[in-house]
Structure formats: C-alpha cells, structure tokens
Amino acid sequence: MAEALAPGYDRYFFSLRTAKSLPGWAAFDGRRLKELRQSGLGKIEEYATALGDGGFFYVPTLRLPRLFGRFDTLHHSFRLQWPSALRQIRENLNLPTLLGREGKMHRNGWGYVLNGAVVLPKVEFTNAATVIRSNRRRIVRVAAHTARSSMSRFNLARYLPLGYARIAVFAKDFRRRRLDGFGLGPELICTVQLRHIRRIKSPDIMGSAIEVSGNWRIAWNRRWMESGGKI
Question: Whole-angstrom Cα distance, residue 25 to residue 93?
Fold first, then answer.
C-alpha cells in the first residue's frame, strides 16, 4: 500500500512498535514491491521476497514455549474464521440474519425487563410474519445480548431471568438515534412481547393487528401491512 500511494522510491522503511517486543523495523526493496503490485499477486507470502538483506528486526520481550505460539495461532484463526462459518451454518439451516440495533434492560422484582430493536435486513414482506413467528425466541436473545454488551458486569439485572420483553422488529436498518422514537413507519413490522411478570403491561402499536400465543404477544403494524406485509 505504501508503494502504491508513494511510488518511485528505492527503499521503504517501516518502524515496528508493539507492547510485546522491543522496537523493530522492516525494510523493503521498492523496485520489487512495484513488480509485485503490477503483477497482480495478492498473496502476502510473495511480498517476503521484497525484504532487503537483513531488512527485518523483531525481538519479543517475552519468549514463550513454541506450544503457546501454536495455541495463539489457532485462537486467532478461530476468531477470523468463525463469523464466516457461522454465516454459512445459518444459510444451510435457512436461519434469517438478525441484527441487534438497540437493547436496554433493568431489574423489576425477580426478573429483568428488556426493551430493544432488532432488524431483519434480508426478509421479504410476503414471508416476514412467518420468519418472525418461527424466530421469536432468537429475536429476544439477540436483543438481550445487545443490552448486556453495553452494561456493566456488576449490574444485577444481567444475571436475573427474563421477566418481560418488548422488542421492535424492523425490515430496514437505521441509525440508533433514528430508531429511538421511530413512530409507525412501514419499516416497522411489529413488536414482539414476552410476558412472565403479569403486572407489567405495555400499550400495543396503535391500530395494530394483535396475535396472542401463550405468553407471547405480537402486534403487527398496520402501516407495514398496508405497504405489502402479510400476516
């Protein structure tokens, strides 16, 4: 990248600084870097041939057994590969993509109360209702995970069982500031409620179609249905 942005130099010198080693450096031959860039080679291993003689210096401050290095490599490999593997698993199982955009929880008696917003970015209007019904527990879990990620580990609410949840489900992603007090636009599909604490009640979407199944309550937004959504 340095050679592409500032071409024409015979030598490119980089300073290496990290908390895990002494200050180091790496020096590369400019002509060789240009040849590699123009050839279209994209493998990082090829650029090792552009290192100058004695052009790499790196001394770790702490030398660990080689076995620890292998575990560290496996750990980083897992972190890099797991998101794509998880995405592939979801595609094979036909699980929809759920994005947690907002989540807040607080304690109320023996349980916690959850409010949040979840986005279904790739869902179609014609089958959104079916997807939401079959993934309502995942919707609540995604919102709860979003809430826990932004709160202190010392907050008691995150360790209590779920008492009440009200999650707004959107067909289109927006900024968090926009989702807060969104209104009744057609992008709002519904609100999903799960109530275990009976004394907690919350008003439904104005003019919505209500669907009740046990402790679950789904309020389908009328504006979304008028724009093509089917329940």
Answer: 48
